[in-house]
Amino acid sequence: MSDLPPRIAIVTPVFNEAAVLPELFSRLANVFDGQPRYRWRAVLVDDGSRDASRNLIREQAARDPRFELVELSRNFGFQSALSAGLAHVDGDDAAVTMDADLQDPPELIPQLVEAWQGGAEVVRAIRRSRAERGVRRLGFDLFHRFYGRLTDSPVERDSGTFGLLGREALAAFNRLPERHRFFPGLRAWIGFDVGDVFYDRQERAAGQSQQSFRRLARYALDGVLSFSYLPLRLLTYAGLCISGLGFAIGVFFVAKRLLGLETASTGFTTLVTLVTFLGGVQLIGIGVLGEYLARVYDELKQRPPLHREAGRSDAELRSESMTARRIGIFVALGLAAFWVMAVSVSPRLGVTADEVVHLTGGYSYWKFNDYRLHPENGTLAMRVATLPLLGMELAFPSFDDPDWLQSRAHMAGRTFFFDLGNPVDRMLQFSRAMIALFGVATAWLIWAWSRRLFGPTAGWLSLGLAMFCPALLAHSGLATSDIALTACVLFALSATWRALHRVTVINIALAALACGAAFLAKMSGVLIVPVIAGILAIRWMRKTPLITRWRGQSRWWRSRGQIVVGATATTFAIAVGSLVVLWAAYGFRYSAFNDEKSRNEGFSLSWDVVLEQSSMPTLDPEPLDVLLERLPPPRPTSMTRLIGTLRDLRVLPEAYLWGFAHTYKFSRERAAFLDGEYSRTGWRSFFPKAFWYKTPLPTLALIAAGIAALCAARGRSTRRRIQYRMTPLLLFLVLYAIMAINMNLNIGHRHILPIYPVLYILAGAAVLWAKRLRWGKLAGGALLGLLAIDSAAARPFYLSYFHPLAGGIDRGYEHLVDSSFDWGQGLPDFADWLREKAARGDQASVFLSYFGADSPRARGLDAIRLADDLSDHGPRAYPAQLRGGWYAIGATQYQRVYLPVRGPWTQRHEELYADLRAQLRAFGTRPPENETEHARLVTIARAIEILQFGRLMHTLGDRRPEELIGGSILLFRLSDEEVGRALYAPAHEIIGQSPTQP
Questions:
Q1: How is the chain split among helix, strand and coil, in percent rounded to 5?
Q2: Are 106 and 31 in contact (CB under 8 A)?
Q3: How large is the C-alpha radius of gyration of the chain?
Q4: Contact yes or no for 77/150 (Cβ under 8 A)
Q5: What distance in Å separates the CA atoms of residue 371 and residue 389, rounded to the nearest whole number?
Q6: Of the candidates 450, 537, 456, which has an alpha carbon nearest to the alpha carbon of residue 494?
Q7: Phi, psi of 195, deg, nearest 5
Q8: CA-CA-CA-CA torsion for 366, 369, 374, 377, nearest 10 degrees?
Q9: Of 335-339, 498-502, 666-670, minimum mean pLDDT range
Q10: What DSSP letter does each residue of 739-770 carry, written as one string?
Q11: Mutual orientation of helices 654-667 and 638-649 as an angle, nearest 10°?
Q12: Whole-angstrom Cα distance, residue 280 to residue 236?
């Protein structure tokens, strides 16, 4: 890329302007001398002048090489001369077009250039006032007033030839082949970003205007005929009207004749009727012929379909070989490949923790119009995922089931999935295929944003990052809500940003639908509210025109006050529309419960609990409660008070408000694990570390390159232009990152999934460096290839992906667990392992401690359950009788995140363990005497089992598992001696000892 300053050409047609040329030369030279940052040249096109104009230009060119003469063989007219001049300067960075009579002041050129450097590819000079008077002034006013009504061309009123075309716009204009040209119309037709500069048109500097009334009339006619078929269609309309009139006249005279009122001479009626009717038919025929000629005329002009793409050079424009259709086909193929990669792994993935409640809740929303089950995760993803289930014959828990009546979604979900004979695998396959469509939409939006900002190469780069992203693939292949939120937020930002620049009914409706969908996708979707507020504030400060279109008429609003009022009104309309969408999702009913279908016994937690007005309901004290931290008493906050007020006023549906309150309550405190540490309120470093651990290294390199390239982009105006266009994305990225870092809910990398699309779009800016570096494209392609290999290696367990520097999938559990690694997806592979074990004659016992919502019991797995009551609700004996054999431990269970024995084994644990064992021995072998004694015995036995599990995990220490099954289950082979030592070795051999090594 050249380091030379931009080259700007001034193109001026000249016809018999000898009187004004000396002053034109002087004023242009002053402008050139005052702007040394640019390379200037003035191209004066002599249009067959008959005075001394040609010689004057030639002499000036000899004195000052910045002036050039282009001679035409005769007078072709102003438009032809202007086109010849623009063709001569094709390849310059910008071209300013102006008249030679100095009514367009050259001193305004620096303002045109400044608007171009600010991001406008086409800059128009708009006249605030004109110097003409009388009939000439009236003619100009009438033409500009009615031109927009006669044509479809968006020509700004009072804009003429004076203006600027950037490199891309200039190249586009020069590719238009037609001969009868109307420059303002063609300038508007080619599109591109437009900027305006306002000025007062002056008197001629000298001499008389060379534009006669006849020339001006022909110019106006060219403008209308080049951009409108209305004159042709008027013939058709006139023919229809006259034919109708002829028919009416015929009916009238026939009626008079039949009534005996006819007094005209014989034959008059027939003559009048035939003349008028046939005349109308002829005009209709001419009009129809005109329609065909109009289409032939349009074909002969061969105007190419031109589209501006930021950041593209002329070389890229000339080398771009794929048509829009071919690009669409390749994008569709890429998106289809993404969908297949996400969905095809479903048979290897068991039921993950949230899928049970998502599908159970969504199915009940559709079937029963009742929203009691799991409203805390929105409704959109749940409804979309369960659409295919509506066509299946599925059994559902009874409306008298206590789990249904008391809104216990997890328990009702287990019944729906595992106890009623429903085809779980088919349910999951279909539901996951629907959710994957959100992933496809996300990838498409990434491609569209990047392509528009940085060009087609950037679009393919960003699309490649999305296609092979383990995080996007993982959550696109699960029937949960995280990818739905990601897609809807990106859609909402895109649609709102568009509506704040081009206000149409369709754009407002799309933005309202997108924002409503973001609210419904997940409760964290409300973050778009402050983002849109920030977008609105930035829109107020930017004087980019606000375009409104209503009933086919466009209007440009340019003043700061107009932009503020228009943008604010548009945002208000979007807000109202999104509320309508939200209410529609709940059937425009406040109550979450459909009393016509079932009784209402309330939510699983009361309103007082979720609004922090009372404590969580407690069960009977458990022996292990002494190991848990004491929870602080509930304390209402400003947020809970706001939710309570909205509930009292019924501003939003009850299910949505309760779900939001529930999410808010449990986002403030939740057990979490990070790098061997435990916390209930999280760490500020959790999501930055999660991002580092689980983002592929090639992706990190490309994101860093894109951000660096954008920051180092040449030209402050270029950076500002791109930054403004990325306003919604950058603002969302900053606010979401701040929210994530300060969030106490640290249970899953998936909670920062929405930032990945923004980062992949930013990565597209890396092509700005690739253009300047010979090896840039090769490096980018190599990194994408490495990403594809890395992603393929993680398949099918994309959820468990960790990059090699973080230990890879085999060591990821040392950093993060729960939905960042182990969401309960591993049972299908564990079932395969059990079959292989049996086939090779291995008779060793298998002990399973599982975390998730799948059911080893329903799958018929031959394993002894251990310390996983949270995931096992069936009857079994306590404590499990442990001995040597295979121990299959879910990674979340291995780190004991949700067990009271997390962390190292301490003296406190040991004392409680010894006490409970003594209590159990006191029972001896006699059976319990009553229910109370039986319940106490079971409680002690369960507590001992959990303590034994804690002791066992402590003694394993840093021991590496023999195998990782299903991307989530750690497999250890322990001998009787190892198990005996773990459970019964003296305390001093366990407490404070170094962990065993592999």
A1: 60, 10, 35
A2: yes
A3: 38
A4: no
A5: 17
A6: 450
A7: -125, 155
A8: 70
A9: 666-670
A10: HHHT-S--S-GGGGTTHHHHHHHHHGGGHHHH
A11: 170
A12: 9
DSSP for residue 685: T
Q: Compute CA distances 938 → 174, 775, 877, whole Å.
A: 87, 69, 9
- Tokens linked to 613: 């007005």
Give me the pLDDT at residue 313, please. Answer: 41
Question: Considering the chain, what is the average pLDDT of its residues?
Answer: 84
Average pLDDT over residues 747-765: 95
How far the first Cα of the chain sits from its last, in Å, is 57
- The predicted-structure confidence for 148-203, as pLDDT tens digits, reads as follows 555 555 555 566 788 898 888 888 887 776 655 667 777 777 777 788 888 877 76
pLDDT of 798 higher than 90: yes
How far apart are the C-alpha atoms of 760 and 706, rounded to whole Å?
9
Residue 936: band (very low, low, confident or very high) from pLDDT cuts 50, 70, 90: confident
Among 201, 197, 77, 78, residue whose Cα is nearest residue 137 = 201
SS3 state of residue 201:
coil
**Which range among 175-184, 447-456, 572-581, 661-670 shows the weakest confidence by mean pLDDT?**
175-184
Q: Is residue 312's pLDDT more than 50? A: no
Q: In 3D, which of 588, 611, 781, 598 has the Cα closest to residue 702?
A: 781
In which element (H, E) is residue 665 found? helix 654-667
Give the Cα separation of 277 and 843 in Å (integer). Answer: 101
pLDDT digits (tens, 9 = 90+) for 242-272: 666 666 666 666 666 555 555 444 555 556 5
Q: pLDDT tier at 838 (50, 70, 90 boundaries)?
A: very high
* pLDDT of 323: 54
Q: How many CB atoms lie within 10 A of CB 877?
A: 11
Mean pLDDT, to the nearest integer, of 618-635?
Answer: 77
3-state secondary structure string, 894-916?
HCCCCCCCCCCCCHHHHHHHHHH
Q: Which two tokens stand for residue 164?
A: 């600027």
Q: How far is CA 37 from CA 3, 11, 40, 185, 578, in A?
A: 12, 19, 9, 32, 49
Cα–Cα separations (whole angstroms), residue 405 to 18, 357, 571, 591, 611: 94, 15, 41, 15, 21
Tell me the per-residue pLDDT of 885-916, one tens digit each, with 9 for 90 and over. 999 999 999 999 999 998 889 889 999 999 99
- Amino acid at residue number 293: L
Query: E strand or H helix at 233, and its extent?
Result: helix 230-258
Q: Give 718: exposed, middle or buried? Use CB within 10 Å, 0-12, 13-18, 19+.
A: middle
Higher pLDDT, 743 or 214: 743
Q: How far apart are CA 986 and CA 215, in angstroms?
A: 109
Which residue matches tokens 């049972």? 827
The closest alpha carbon to 800, from 861, 735, 750, belongs to 750
Q: What is the residue type of 397?
A: P
Q: Report helix angle 560-585 to 482-499, nearest 10.
A: 150
* Angle CA 440–442–446, to nearest 5: 115
